[in-house]
Design goal:
By secondary structure, the protein is mainly alpha-helical. It has 13 helices and no strands. About 60% of the residues lie in helices and about 0% in strands.
Length: about 350
């Protein structure tokens, strides 16, 4: 299956552009090493830096320009080390297996996020262990599978969120990882215009992952914010709130999608994606400045007494309006996250024999 090229013109000097991206990738890797050290030695600072600075900024970046994050993500860079050094076995994942990797990524996302409250938000060592485990998995997938198929377009839990939020990118970037197209994924999430959940060969795994993310993720996000930090991982509420919310919005989505028909699926996906990211910032932004429902949870600075509650409400409403305008009402021409590089002269990878 050949992915359509992006309509954007290539840059005048792609080699120089890739060198700039490579520099940013190395800087991000160095920053990640510093973050890991900080999580272990100064856990309070490390936890704030990761969970209260980097993570809150990521969804907005993915909504506006997912290609930027795809180029500089440290885990993505590590997954491509074997490819760059010639150590990758470069096996090709079949169109039946690729959706299963994506479904596993969704399952990881829905499992790990609730564990933030009892473990990862509280412990620098736990968060560091999570990041190291993800890095090892990313490198291993890059050694085993070709291109981005193993991690960046497969097992990575964040990729499921990228596909939900990154449906209206403002710009198409040069791919800093793919110097040539190895056709590792079909359709390629980076270079296919109008990329969203459900695109590709219809399989049960792809359909389930699509329904969980489009329909269930808004309720999952809402439910997650109903749980305070410090609860037990075995407490019923730790899991009941996010998964209860998931079930409610998933049922709403399935009903609306069934009644609306195939022609409206793109708009429905945009509405539910906008609802999910808006819900995230509706709760997250006030918490960052001390106006959250649980005092101290997720707080970066204390702004009570400096900012009025009315201003916080205006901020919440403005952010919500922005995301719905950007993702639903704004209708730009279909645009890919990345420009498609020149295809490889021949495929040398071996297809994995999985049924």
């Amino acid at each position: 299956m050949v992915c359509p090229a992006s309509p954007d013109l290539p840059p005048s000097n792609p080699n120089r552009t890739i060198r700039y991206w490579s520099l940013l990738q190395w800087l991000m890797l160095l920053a990640s090493g510093g973050l890991l050290a900080t999580l272990v030695v100064w856990p309070t600072i490390g936890l704030h830096g990761f969970w209260d600075v980097l993570i809150p900024a990521a969804p907005a970046l993915v909504v506006v320009a997912p290609g930027i994050w795809r180029n500089i993500c440290p885990l993505g860079t590590m997954s491509q080390l074997a490819r760059r050094t010639g150590w990758s076995r470069a096996r090709v994942v079949s169109t039946r297996v690729q959706p299963r990797l994506g479904l596993i990524g969704v399952a990881l996302l829905l499992t790990l996020v609730p564990l933030r409250h009892p473990w990862f938000n509280q412990s620098g060592l736990a968060t560091a262990a999570l990041l190291v485990t993800a890095a090892v998995a990313a490198v291993a997938m890059g050694v085993w599978l070709g291109g981005k198929s193993g991690w960046c377009a497969g097992l990575c839990p964040v990729h499921a969120v990228e596909r939900l939020y990154g449906i209206r990118p403002v710009i198409t970037m040069t791919s800093a990882h793919c110097r040539q197209c190895d056709a590792c994924v079909a359709p390629c999430p980076d270079t296919t215009p109008d990329q969203r959940h459900g695109i590709g060969v219809k399989t049960p795994a792809r359909s389930l992952a699509s329904a969980l993310m489009i329909g269930g993720f808004p309720g999952f996000v809402w439910g997650w914010f109903q749980v305070p930090d410090g609860v037990s991982a075995w407490a019923v509420g730790t899991w009941a709130w996010p998964f209860g919310g998931l079930v409610v919005t998933l049922a709403m989505y399935l009903l609306v999608a069934w009644r609306a028909g195939a022609a409206a699926q793109r708009t429905i996906a945009a509405v539910f994606g906008a609802a999910a990211v808006s819900c995230y910032y509706w709760f997250r932004l006030p918490a960052l400045i001390g106006f959250g429902p649980y005092p101290g949870d997720g707080m970066l600075v204390q702004a009570q007494g400096v900012i009025s509650p009315v201003a916080v409400s205006v901020m919440q409403g403005g952010v919500t309006l922005f995301f719905f305008w950007w993702m639903v009402f704004r209708r730009p021409a279909p645009r890919a996250w990345m420009r498609r590089p020149q295809p490889a002269s021949q495929a040398t990878a071996v297809t994995i024999g999985m049924s």
